[in-house]
Amino acid sequence: MKFDFTFENPTKIYFGKNSLDNLEPELKNYGKKILLAYGGGSIKKNGIYDKVIAILKKCDKEVFECSGILPNPALSKMLEGAKMVKENNIDLILAVGGGSVVDCAKGIAVSAYAEGDAFQRYWINFEDINNKTVPVASVLTMVGTGSEMNGGSVISDTVNKVKAGRVFPSFVNPKFSILNPEFTFTVSKYQMVSGVFDIMSHCMEQYFSGDDDNTSDYLIEGILKSVIHSVKIAVQDPNNYEARSNIMWCATMALNKVVGCSKEQDWEVHAIEHQLSAYTNCSHGMGLCAISMPYYRYIYKYGLPKFVRFAKEIWNVDATGKSDDEVALEGIACMEKFAKECGMITTLKELGATKEMLPDIANSCLLGGGYKKVNHEEILEILKQCYE
What is the pTM of this model? Predict the structure, then answer.
C-alpha cells in the first residue's frame, strides 16, 4: 500500500429480505419530523411507499414529502427540499429510492441551513461545510451509485447545464441504509444494467491508476468479477435473489471508499459523463458505458501494465503470442462485447447527443485524469469516437 490513508465510514447497513424491520427501531433515535424524499412514484406502485408510511405512522412521526426527484437530480428540487427542511425544522431526511434520491437527500441536508448560494459554495468551490446539517437515512430500491454508504452527492444545475459532484465528509453519509435486494426486482432491465455499468465504472476509475502492488486492486478485481457474473444471471432471471443481492452489495462496496484506499484514482470518465448528461439528461450508467471504451482505448498506453492485468484477470484474455498492446485492447473489446450482450448503450447518438453538442460538452468538463491528463481538445476527440 503505497500511500498513507485514513478510512472512516459511519453508515450502518441493514442488508437482506427482512432489513426493513430495522426501520422502526432506528426511527426511535430521531425526532418527530421526517422528510420523506422519493422519486417519480414507482415506490407507490410496488408497495414500498405504503410499507414505509405504515412504519412512520406506527412510530408517531410527522411526515413531510419531497417527491418527484428524478434521475440526475435537479438543483431546483434540491432547493425545494432544503426550504421544506428549514421551514419545518425537519429532524431526519429519509430517502426512499435509488442513488439519485439519496444524492438529492444529502444535498438537501447540507443546503438547508447554508448561507448564500449553497450549490456554488459546496459543489463548485468545494468550501468546507460551516452550517448545521440534517441527518439522512435511506431505503434503497435501485443499485449502482453506492450513495447509500458514502458522502457523495451529484446535482444538476439544469439552467446553466452544469452537473457537479461532491464527496462530502463522512458526517454527511447516511446514518443507516436499508438494503433489501427484493426491492430492486421491479426495476427495468435498462435501469438494472445501467446501474451495473455504474458499479463497474466506479471500480475502474479507482483501478486504473498507480503502478504499485496493493490490496485495493485485488478487491476491485473481485467486485468486478462478481458483478459481471451476477448480471449475466440477472438479465435472464431478474428475480434471482442471489444474483440481485450480489449486485446490490457490489454497488455498495465499489464506492464506500474501502477499495479506493491508497489509490491515486482517475474519475475522468465520470467528469465527462456528468457534462454529457447535463446536456442530454441521459442515464448515468449508460453514459459511462458509451464513454468508457473510447476513453480507455485513448489512454491505455499510458498505463499499459494495468490494462494488460485487467484483460487477463477480468476477461480471461489469453496472452500467448500477443503483444501487451494486443492484450490490453482485447480486454477493452471484451468489455464492449459484454456491454452489448447485456443491453447497455455504447454510443452517444443513442443517448440523444448531437454532434453540435460535443464541443460544448468537452469544453465544460472539469479536467483531471489518472494515467493520462487529457485536455479539452482530447476530450472532444474521445467524444467523437463515442458518437456512433
Answer: 0.95
